[in-house]
Automatic annotation (TrEMBL):
GO terms for molecular function: flavin adenine dinucleotide binding; N,N-dimethylaniline monooxygenase activity; NADP binding. It comes from Friedmanniomyces simplex. InterPro entries: FAD-binding_MO, FAD/NAD-bd_sf, Flavin_mOase-like. Keywords: FAD, Flavoprotein, Monooxygenase, NADP, Oxidoreductase. This is FAD-containing monooxygenase EthA. Its cofactor is FAD. It comes from the Eukaryota.
Length: 316
């Protein structure tokens, strides 16, 4: 049986950072293939479009997390959400990838025909319109979050709580926590971001944790990065490669040190944490993880804002 006519050679689902990157790679390496990107939301960005909790930022550096074909040129490696969205939109527009995106297109299902060797997609566009699209190949770039149903913590008695319960993934934009007492359940990367940002307006912010995380302070722009950017006789791509390798090598060396000398790494991290804590907060047990550094992910806080909030007395 002859192959059915297709609408596109490739269908990409999701206009987040992976979908945009794959669109660029198709244009670069297989320019004769047609493609489209189906995005269920009203704009590109994926996680960085959906998540809007106070202070949302990356927990990885943008020199390695960003696009190799569009160097990250901002001064801070750990960037806030709006800056990442701006970077993604500019990158997509620069190479015409934004013109390939069909917004408000939700893929209901995808079926493969072994006979015709094509994929068939049933799509709902703009909430009501039903479409059928066909392609030879498709790529899923939807990430690993359930965007409609975020994971809820099972807290006995929470239904009787008289205050407001908010989830970072679906943060209410009209939530006013000014002069309120706020409790953050959890101590991962999102909690480390939320505490200093909520503390700017809240009366107190308390982290309620099952077990602590290692939290490393990282200068928003360290001396080496500052120096590389001022090597004006280096081209921008070369500066970017140097900065990228800095962010590849430093974590690699640090993790190898922690792997080979776990007790020394534990002591080093403990001393760094202790030096940033207020005297009213003992490191043990609140900031003394039961595991060694990098056995779980180490959290980053730019310019030590997490510890600054603790020292201010508004964070606990």
């Amino acid at each position: 049986m002859a192959s059915e006519k297709v609408d596109y050679d490739v269908v990409i689902i999701g206009a987040g950072i992976s979908g945009i990157n794959f669109g660029y790679r198709l244009q670069e390496r297989l320019p004769n293939l047609s493609y489209t990107i189906l995005e269920s939301r009203h704009e590109l960005g994926g996680t960085w479009s959906l998540f809007n909790y106070p202070g949302i930022r990356s927990d990885s550096d943008l020199y390695t997390f960003g696009f190799p074909w569009r160097p990250w040129e901002e001064q801070t490696a750990i960037a806030e959400g709006p800056l990442i969205i701006k970077y993604m939109k500019e990158s997509a527009a620069m190479y015409g990838i934004d013109q390939k995106i069909q917004f408000n297109h939700h893929v209901n299902n995808a079926d493969y025909s072994r006979t015709s060797k094509t994929w068939t997609f049933n799509v709902t566009a703009n909430g009501t319109e039903q479409k059928t699209l066909r392609s030879k190949f498709y790529l899923i770039c939807t990430g690993y979050y359930d965007y409609k149903e975020p994971l809820q913590a099972q807290i006995p008695g929470i239904e009787d709580f008289k205050g407001t319960v908010a989830h970072p993934q679906s943060w209410p934009q009209d939530l006013d926590y000014t002069d309120k007492n706020v409790v953050i359940v959890g101590s991962g990367a999102t909690a480390i971001t939320l505490l200093p940002n909520l503390a700017k307006k809240a009366s107190t912010v308390t982290i309620l944790q099952r077990s602590p995380s290692y939290v490393m302070s990282q200068p928003a722009e360290d001396g080496l990065e500052w120096g590389i950017r001022r090597l004006t006789w280096f081209s921008k791509p070369l500066q970017h490669r140097l900065l990228r390798w800095k962010w590849v090598l430093m974590p690699f060396l640090l993790t190898r040190f922690a792997y080979n000398f776990p007790q020394a790494a534990r002591k080093m991290f403990g001393n760094l944490i202790q030096a940033q804590l207020p005297p009213t907060l003992p490191r043990d047990p609140h900031f003394n993880p039961t595991y060694n550094p990098f056995e779980q992910r180490v959290c980053l806080c730019p310019d030590g804002d997490y510890y600054a909030a603790l020292r201010s007395g508004k964070g606990t």
